[in-house]
Specification:
single chain, about 220 residues, alpha/beta, TIM Barrel, eight-stranded parallel sheet, about 30% helix, globular, binds D-xylitol-5-phosphate, binds zinc ion
Length: about 220
């Protein structure tokens, strides 16, 4: 029996004028993690929030933090982000010329080490580093904005990566980020996803807590 999948609502789609209330909804819900999208206006064409806001979020969050760094030179900031003791810190493959070193740097802080791949980056680039990765985040939209359309090739990428992980008998998790909702959750889980990030499909729903419950209820075996 595979481990149950995790749901990580992305606060990017929350209402920032009532961030506390939205976070408390996630605390009450069946969600597993808070997904926090840090953007620098350089790696991606958008700027979101940094350490200062994340420290405030950490005071409200009663669930583990999943920090997704969409920034250039992430190695300069790992220790600062690690101060809130996140579950995972994810850096982009495309932003890390010394990925192996950066992953060790993340692990030294006690966080799990994640690597995100942009939609055009093939999974095989991770062949010789997969053993060192706790979580691979497959971007199923071009990073930078919430509410975009799911790129359907992400399904076959998920399958390929699942095969690579199984062949090596690893416990690396596969996270899917972008355009995820009730319409594709089941196929993604069947393809081998472990963690579903959901922004607009949760916070844009009339009942966000029910949307989380519905995403959590899918089963790749019986769904
Ligand atoms: C995109 C971010 C995603 C985003 C997902 O760059 O990494 O986490 O918030 O939002 P939705 O679920 O609306 O596509
Ligand atoms: Zn993200």
């Amino acid at each position: 029996m595979p481990a149950p999948h995790l749901i990580a609502p992305s606060l990017l789609a929350a209402d920032f004028t009532r961030l506390k209330e939205d976070m408390e909804m996630v605390n009450r819900s069946e969600a597993d993690w808070f997904h926090l999208d840090v953007m620098d206006g350089r790696f991606v064409p958008n700027i979101t929030f940094g350490m200062f806001i994340i420290e405030a979020m950490a005071k409200i969050a009663q669930k583990p933090l999943d920090i997704h760094l969409m920034i250039v030179e992430p190695e300069r900031y790992i220790e600062q982000f690690a101060k809130v003791q996140p579950e995972v810190i994810t850096v982009h493959y495309e932003a890390c010329p010394h990925l192996h070193r950066t992953l060790q740097q993340i692990k030294a802080t006690g966080a799990k080490a994640g690597v995100a791949l942009n939609p055009h980056t093939p999974v095989h680039v991770l062949e010789d580093i997969l053993e060192d990765i706790d979580l691979v985040c497959l971007m199923s939209v071009n990073p930078g904005f919430g509410g975009q359309k799911f790129i359907y090739q992400s399904l076959s990428k998920t399958r390929k990566l699942r095969d690579m992980i199984e062949e090596r008998n690893l416990s690396t998790r596969i996270e899917i980020d972008g355009g995820v909702g009730l319409q594709n959750a089941e196929s993604l889980l069947q393809a081998g996803a472990d963690v579903l990030v959901a922004g607009s499909s949760v916070f844009g729903a009339s009942d966000p807590e029910a949307a989380i419950r519905a995403l959590k209820a899918f089963s790749p075996m019986f769904g």
